[in-house]
Amino acid sequence: MNTDHELTQLRQRVTELERSEARYRNIFESSPISLWEEDWSAVKQHLDRLLATGVDLDAHLRHHVDDVLACLEVVRILDVNRATLELCQAPDKDQLLRALSVVFNEKSLDTFRRELVALGSGAMSYEEETVISTLLGEDRNIMFRVVVGADCEQTWERCFVSLVDITDRKRAEEALRLSKEETIQAQRELLARLSAPVIPISDEIIVMPFVGQLDQTRMQQALSVLLDEVQRLRVTTAILDITGVPEIDAEGTQGLVQAAQAVRLLGAQVVLTGIRPAIAQGLVSGGFNLDELVTRGTLQTGIAFAMQSGRTRRV
C-alpha cells in the first residue's frame, strides 16, 4: 500500500517537473531577448588548471590569446531561442552553431577575455557592451550578460547568456553626439564672426575691425572668416582696422602678415589701418616682411586709399 502511495507521489512529481520544464521552455523560446543555454564546465576546468600554476589570470590571458581561444572553443551551446536566430540572422539553430566564429569574432574576443577573468575570480555573472556580427555580415551592438546557474557554481555546467540588441540606441547616441558637435562648431563659427565682424563698404571693399587683444587663436579665427568673405564677395581690398587693439605681440603681427599673404593669393590686397607709434615700432622690430602690407594711420584714410585704388584699376 505504501509502495502504491509512493509511486503515485513519484508520478505526480514527475508530472510537475514535466510541466515546469514545459513552462521554462515556453518562456525560453518566446522571450524577445536572445537567450543561450550553455555548458561551461570545460572552460572552468581549463581556467582551474591555469590558476593552479599561480598565474595572474588577467595578465596571463592578455598575453596568451591562445588560452582565450581554447576556452572559447570548449564552450558547448546547449540551446538558443528564436530571438537569437533573428538577432544573428540565422535560418536555423544548426546553421548558427556552425557559424559561431562569425558571430563571436575578434570584435568580441576582448569581451570574452574579461568575462573569463571575472568568472575565474569568483564572480557568478558578468555583463558588458560589445559587438557581434550577424551571419549576413551586419555588426550589432549588444549588451552581453552571462550568469552561472544557481546549482552549478562549482561546475559551470549550465550557464545562461543573454544578448540585448542596443544597436538603435547606440546609433541614436552617435547621432546626438554628432548633432552636439555640429551645434558647438556652429557656435564657434558664430563667435568667431562676432569677434571679427566683416563690414562691406562697397562692392569692392570690406572692413574687419579688431577690438581687444590679438592672440594667435583669434587671428586664426579672423583669418578664416576674412578669407571666406573675400572669396564670397569677390572684393579687391580688405581693410584690417586695429584702432581698438591696445598692443600687438609677435604672434599677432605674424597673423597680420599671413592674412595679407593669403588675401593676395585670392586676388585682393590688405590695408592695415589704426596703427599707433608703439604698434608701428613692434611691427618693425619684429623683423617681419611687411612688403605685403599697405598701411594707413586711420580707418578713414584707409577707406579713401582703397576707393582711390579701385577707381584707378577701373580706369
UniProtKB/TrEMBL annotation:
Transmembrane segments: none annotated. CDD domains: STAS_RsbR_RsbS_like (cd07041). InterPro entries: Bact_StressResp_Reg, PAS-like_dom_sf, STAS_dom, STAS_dom_sf. Keywords: Phosphoprotein. It holds the Pfam family STAS. Residues 195-306 form the STAS domain. PROSITE patterns: STAS. This is STAS domain-containing protein. It comes from Nannocystis bainbridge.
